[in-house]
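Follow-up to my post from last week.
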Amino acid sequence: MPQYLLNIIQPAGQVPPPEVLEPVMRDVATLNEEMRAAGVWVFAAGLHQPEASTVVRPDGLVTDGPYAEAAEFIGGFDVIEAADLDEALAWTRKLTGVLGLPVELRPVATTF
Amino acid sequence: MDAPATALVERTFREHSRRAVAVLTRLLGDIDAAEEAVQDAFVTALARWPADGVPPSPPGWIITTARNRAIDRLRREGTRTERHVQAALLHDVTSPPQEEGPVVDDRLRMVFTCCHPALSVPAQVALTLRLLGGLTTAEIAAAFLVPEPTMAQRLVRAKAKIRDARIPYRVPTEAELPDRLPAVLSVVYLVFTEGYAASAGEELVRGELCAEAVRLGRLLAELMPDEPEVAGLLALMLLTESRRPARTSAGGDLVLLADQDRTRWDTELITEGQELVRRCLRRNRPGPYQLQAAIAAVHSDAATAAATDWGQVLALYDQLMALAPSPVVALNRAVAVAEVAGPAAGLEFVERLDLPRHHLLPAVRADLLRRLGRREEAVDAYDAALALTGNERERAFLRRRRDELTADPQSLEA
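User reply:
Got it. Predicted complex:
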């Protein structure tokens, strides 16, 4: 079954207050439950802000922060299994609806 | 070389290659593989038919041969990682393809795959012309004024996305159709308008685009007889196309609707278009294409510009504004207002519009100001319109109108 990555695109610099965030996170959890029940859910996670990231380069160099400053970053993601793009799009629409954020849908090429 | 057999191969290619590609795409699940298999089959036909005689059903022979060629190719090229995928394909392929009813469905599947919203609009247009219109990459490139390698790249990328993202090869369900049909219709209409807004020098290629859009419109109307917007689009294109002979003067200058020699309109296209408009409006499910077609039908009903039922045109624009409001529709509505209630009333609506970078707004404004005798403002508006249009014919027309104003104050009365 083909897999798709749903990248949640978040604008940099604004973290919504808890009273806004909490109901959204509850809805996201419910949607992930729905995905599990439908048998499409593979993995999902929310990520810390890019400031918390560390980059390791092939030469062993370890640096603080994201590799490039950006106006948007990946705030979290879902991996799902779907028969085709239309089925994956239907789930992506649900996710973007719950979050109020754009979601990039990318087909997985290889799994290891 | 048997000339009649060779000619028949060519005719079969023209008439049936797109269907064959659509059928093979369903069987193989891959557009590139389908195109290649069909190409192979025609090459084989060129070698065999003159020698062995023409088969009883040429298109059937092509599809069967293409299917067999595809199986051969898959066996030959089979790699370890893809072996089981191909096994599944072979299983599908060996079931005999049905060449009657479902063939039509395959082309409809192809329409919806080519016009999937996950593809960019230029990619949708290129794919539709290539796979349903049967235009060559070179022809599509010429029509859209891009270098051939650019267009080839666009097609390769689009097909790769269909394959990698798994854009499905199926007709949307009834529930999905309202979301998916507009993209299909807008691709066909885009092909048509691209052809209709001909720029000098590209005339022949561009006229071919209109003909292709009409052909696609007819195909869609045949495949989706219950969708009034499909009939509406076809009617709109036919009625617009009917005016083509009168749209330019002998010298190649643009002639406005009001000034056209209506005896040069194509009455056959008008009759067909009007009949379609009547039939789809009777369903009482109006949509933007049906309404635009109805407006075109009102114009084609009038033997002279003065005989135009502008009240009817305005009522239709009101409906269109309610259904699909846009600044361009509002501008056209303002033109109808000017005809019904005078240029001052029309101008009032035009002044309220925000349509930056579109030459039609200053062009309409210029015309209304000219009719109101506000010469200097009209000249400025013509200059503004000239600055915004790249189409040589339209530029010539605007320049002529402006020069009339600066040269001859009397023409204000026109």
